[in-house]
Amino acid sequence: MKTKKYSFYKEKYGYYFILPYFIVFSIFILYPLVYTFYLSMTRYDGFSEITWVGFQNYGRLIKDQFFWKSFVNTWRIWIVNIIPQIGIALLLASWFSDVRYRIKGSGFFRAVFYLPNLVTAASVALLFNVLLDWQHGAINQLMISMGILKEPIHWLGESTLMPLIVSFIQWWLWFGHTLILIMAGILGIDPSYYEAAVVDGANRWQIFIRITLPLLKPIMLYVIVTSLIGGMQIFDIPFVLTDGKGAPASSLLTMVVYLYNQGFQYNNFGYGAAIAYALFLVILLCTVVLIRFYHKGDKEYE
Amino acid sequence: MKKIIPLMLVITLTLPLLIGCGAPTREDATTSQDIEDSAKEGEGGNGEKIKLSLWSFTDELSHAIKEFQKRHPNVEIQLTVIPNEDYPTKIRSVLQSGKGAPDIFTGELQQVKEWVEASYWKDLAKEPYNAGDYLKDMVQYVADIGIDSKGRIKALSWQTTPGAYIYRRSVAKEYLGTDDPEEIGKMMSNMDDFIDLGRTLRDKSNGKIKLVSGVDDCVWIPHSLKENAWVEDGKFVIDEKIVEHFKNMKLFREENLDAKTNQWGPPWFELMNNGEVFGFLLPTWGLHYVLKRNAPDTSGDWGLTSPPAPYFWGGTWLGIYSRSKHKDVAWEFIKMVTSDEEYLQKLINDTGEFVSNKKIIDKVKDDFSDDFLDGQNHYAFFAEEIEKIDASKVTKYDQQINIMMQSIIEEYVDGKIDLNKALNRLKQNVKAAYPELVVD
Prior knowledge:
The complex is a heterodimer.
Chain A: H1 4-39, E1 42-43, E2 51-52, H2 56-63, H3 65-97, H4 106-114, H5 121-131, H6 138-145, H7 161-187, H8 191-199, H9 204-215, H10 217-232, H11 236-241, H12 255-265, H13 269-301
Antiparallel strand pairs in A: 1-2
Chain B: H1 4-21, H2 34-44, E1 50-56, H3 62-71, E2 75-81, H4 87-97, E3 104-108, H5 109-115, H6 131-135, H7 140-145, E4 163-168, H8 169-176, H9 181-187, H10 191-204, H11 221-225, E5 231-232, E6 235-236, H12 240-254, H13 266-274, E7 279-283, H14 284-294, E8 302-305, E9 316-320, H15 327-339, H16 341-351, H17 358-364, H18 378-385, H19 398-413, H20 419-433
Parallel strand pairs in B: 1-2, 1-3
Antiparallel strand pairs in B: 3-9, 4-7, 4-8, 5-6
Helix pairs in contact in B: 19-20
């Protein structure tokens, strides 16, 4: 222990050092958070006076069929994307990290799989918009020249297909990222577990289920939670892919697309703020539930 | 001393953050010519320079700014161009806070309808502006849009944007036997004739030539025909002509009269070059900024005629911020942009812009020709077309409702939903977006 006087100063400087974080946090996170909540209690079109309406916007939200549609759409796009994403990433990670396979150039593949993630989502959406074009798109022309299709398909007008396509784009963009996280997790596992398992005569599948998966839990939790937060806020791809309003038939209307349109296109700032809060609550609840669920499992192990 | 070192460390660590926060907002596209300005400052020497700021969503006004600065060396106008999508949001926030608001700001047709009713644009009808005197020479509909419901003049425009049907002369000659704009115009005097013309072209070319590029090309047609605006007395109305438009577009698709593309996409621009579409429904600016730019090789193969229904599309209005410190200078600028004969003449010569000042239109319309249109005098054509325009049915809701309508039409013509469902879906969309409207 040092002298009392010295430790006093140490504490004080500690506060100075963490001050920048709190300043930035309160300006960019806390203040917007509080202000958005205030806005969600008002009616405001960006031009005229702000009028206080209490919980009216939330009442409207519960009865708004478009909000619920956007809620379902967002979840559907996320779930259809996250399951194959983690599945493929797990499979590839276990291949790449398995010493017995000794896959050549796994570093190269990792880089290639990660590449899509470096492209801006908006440009990817624009690219797919061109690829999927009805009359002149590469996909239709390719399929017609190969004899798979007779008539071009109006992809961008198919309300059942479009959410799947968005999920696919999300999967393609993110599975490389997930792969790297999971690989890092696998490589962090002590090799002696695997050696012991091999000595005990366990096969690959047993090793994967009994050793790799349970020890990957913290990483998986991280992957799922961050993906959930990002997935609930999905905006750029659905927004750029069609008309910015979630066409066809509102099938790409996600919660944030709806929020954007209500706030900045229809000038219902108050209502847009209420949607933002609903989204905030959804994400908060799901994250808490997920973390609880995972920690419950931990205790059983101990 | 010991205390100071950590403190300095904290400060140096914090500083970049603070600087990061206060990073200047984008103010690109400054058109002020530095060399010229500094030269004039030296010779003029009449004290401080007056700095005006102007916000817009296009760089159209840079031409005018150059001219104005030449005439008034002691004034510097800084033009800030903000992309279309962000423009309303950005301008709204500076006007609300009152900090950093521009002296002059522009608005696009549908924004203007909303903004003239707010108090951010100065009323120019009164002394010392007397804008009413200048409105007399302005095309009626252009003047009307800048006037609010109480008769106050809030914004003016230098341009008129009547629409046309711009067609390929070679296609017309091959399949219709003539490329005369008058004759072609007669073949599409109304929507039924237009459809018949499409059928003729389709049959004679074995389905190769389409009448329009896509169903969204016709989006402006019903708006000049309809009797009710989208919103009448706070009530959302679907006019008969809108319903008719839905049916017509379905017929276009079923009878294979459109090329099934959407506006502004790469295939749309491609169609301008490959000659598979007979023509495009484009306004004045569409000729100069869309066709000429995207299909330069086809120059001389285009003709311009009256569309099946008169329409207009877009337009830029400008007004003075009510709390600007330099309203007098700003007014001088707006006066020059909208009514100065010499300047407008120069603008026409340089860019081919179609202006809103009737005196100037009358002066230039008789001997004007455009090589891109095989020497056709489109000025005289547009001068006639503006007489037919009625802008009284534009509301502040139009832009958003039209986007909603367009995607519903796409579904309807694809056969995904029937007419009833389409109209209901439009109503639901409008109700969700604008709860203040009565929708039944």
